[in-house]
Structures are given as structure tokens and as C-alpha cells.
Amino acid sequence: MYAAETDNLWRFYGEKPALRGLNIKVEEGEVFGVIGPNGAGKTTLFRILATLLRPSRGSAKVFGRDVVKEPGEVRKMITYLPEDAGIYKHLSGLDFLKMMASLYGVDAVERGALVSGLDDALREKMGGYSKGMRRRILLASCLMVNPRLAILDEPTAGLDVEHAVYVRKIIREYASEGTTFLVSSHNMLEVSYLCDTVALIHRGEIVEQGEPAELLTRYGVQNLEELFVQRMGEQR
Questions:
Q1: How does pLDDT run across 158-200, given as a tens digit for each residue?
Q2: 92: DSSP letter
Q3: Which residues contact 236 (CB under 8 A, 6 or more apart)?
């Protein structure tokens, strides 16, 4: 059984297809990276797996549960961090973690506080948080409940080096303990560091997939940025 899988997955916005028969299989316990240009379909894929969008055709499953037929069961096993996730500005970081823990019915506030690494700032209102602090508290709310699958859309987008390194460290720690991750990023160095498997999506289809090191060897390139540019050039 796969942590996440899709079979001939299509999604239309009007008459425009965002996903075109996409097939992926994410192994349990791996960090699976999805890369591609803007508008390639990454966020649409994530929203379908998170039960926020319905496929137009095909199917998607999380740990064997159909996202359309069993959305409640899927939501018990996943957390989802959108790229543009917002916060409750008038809540303190600690109160936000308490609220999220209560929604999942778990006693996880202490773990969330530890993951965030925000210490005394947790007692401050989140309206005064920097972007990096906001991202850390949001990531903590996703991971403190120990999801079987964490879906992270651009988890370090716009963060400075210190905050980005911290977020990557936390993801790798949770992955080493068995959490499966589905991650998108425009940062190819980040993808190389984090991901066990990478899928390159273009116009709603997977055009390449494999382990980062194997892909570099196969195409004779030095890094994923070169691979990305090469494969995107071939698609034009």
C-alpha cells in the first residue's frame, strides 16, 4: 500500500486541464518532491490529495483510502500546509497550537512548541511574527499531531537562510521517524537535500521521476537546476 497514489488523474478548470492523466506512487516513509514551473499542476495535485478539490476524472488515494469516497478517513491521516497559509493574528502562538491540537483531539501542544523553536515568542500575538516565525508555527501545527502524511507546498518559500535551514532540519527529523512527506519547492538545492524521490511536472503531466542522484547521473548534469532547465527546454 502506498502513502499516496493517483491513477489517471485529471482536473479541469473550465475547459483547461490542470492535471492530465497524472500517475504517482509515494512510498510510505519517503520524502517525495514535486517540482515544476508555475502553473504545472503541483498545487492542484496537493489540494486533491488533501481532499480540498475533487478530481475531474481518475482517482487518488491516501494509504488506500479514496479521497472522494472517504475524505473523513483521509483527513485523519494527513496534514496540509499551503504556500499561502494564513494565521490568526490576534491569537498567541501558544493559543494557536492549543486550538489546532483540540481540532485533532490530541495532547500535542508541548511537542508543537518544541517543533516551532519559538520559545518565549509563543506567548506573543502572531500578528507581530515575522514571515519565518509564522512559517515555523504553521509547520509545528502540521507536525505536532504526528501525521502519517504531511503535504507541504513550498514550506520555505520567502524564508531567510536561518529559518529555511531550521524548517528543513525538522522535516528530515520527522521523516527519519517514519512520517511521509509530499513536498513542492522551487529551490532545487532544497529538493536535493530533502527528497528521496523527485517528480518533475509540466502542464499537468510527469515528465521525469527518480532519485535525485540517479537523475543527475542519467542526464549528465551537475545539479537539479540544470536538469530542470534542460527538461523544460525539451518541452517547449
A1: 788 888 888 899 999 999 999 999 999 888 888 888 999 999 9
A2: B
A3: none
Q: Which amino acid is at 64?
A: G
Question: CA 83 to CA 96: how far, in whole Å?
Answer: 18
Residue 163, Cα to own-chain centre: how many angstroms? Answer: 17
Cell readout for 198 is 523527485
CA atoms within 13 A on the CB side of 26: 31
From CA 25, how far away is CA 32, in angstroms rounded?
9
Classified as helix, coil or strand, 233 is: helix
Burial of residue 160 (number of CB atoms within 10 Å: 0-12, 13-18, 19+): exposed
Strand 57-62 relative to strand 149-153, pairing:
unpaired
**125, β-bridge pairs:** 92
Q: Is 22 left (phi over 0), alpha (psi -120 to 50) or beta?
A: beta
The answer to whether 49 touches 190, Cβ cutoff 8 Å, is no
